[in-house]
Amino acid sequence: MRATIPGLASPHPIGHTLPALYLDDEFTQRFTAGLDEVIAPVFAVLDNLPAYLDPMTAPIDFVDYLADWVGAVRPDGMDESHWRAMVAESAALYRGRGTVTGIADQLRYTTGYDLEIEDSGGTAWSARSGGGIPGSPTPSLEVHIHAADPATVDVRRVESLVAELVPAHVAARVIVSEVQ
What we know:
Distance between the termini: 48 Å
Radius of gyration: 27 Å
Shape: elongated
Number of helices: 7
CATH topology of the largest domain: GMP Synthetase, Chain A, domain 3
Strand order of the largest sheet: 1-2-3
CATH class of the largest domain: Alpha Beta
Structural class: alpha+beta
Strand content: 5-15%
CATH architecture of the largest domain: 2-Layer Sandwich
Number of strands: 3
Oligomer: single chain
Order of helices and strands: HHHHHHEEHE
């Protein structure tokens, strides 16, 4: 939360901008100095606005605000540096939302697991009409997670994330296997 910062000097003191009549008035100068202390953090934020808009350099409470802009939700237990990276990549991640690559990237960022995704779809082209239709008629998706210890994988959490990421008509399942 942005607030006053004791002792922060204003780069544009109000008292110095007043007409000459008030420059020597002690009460007016003390009064405007109090206003300077209140407005100085506003100048500090505006002077450093590019740093506030970059999730890697912004204060953590502002990173949460930036996350709201891009629709990112911080999963439970995610550390600060990982959260900053996820917010920084959110626009790119959401461009691929609903695609196999987008789902895989989002899951990797969110969970950190090594995974592969298989889907039932496919694409093909033919110079002649009447060619075969690729893929399966029933849309489905399988998320294969490879872990040294499968017991450490929070399958319910991954299933919940997958349910949020895949299109509503696609049946999805999560399969955890041990790395050989």
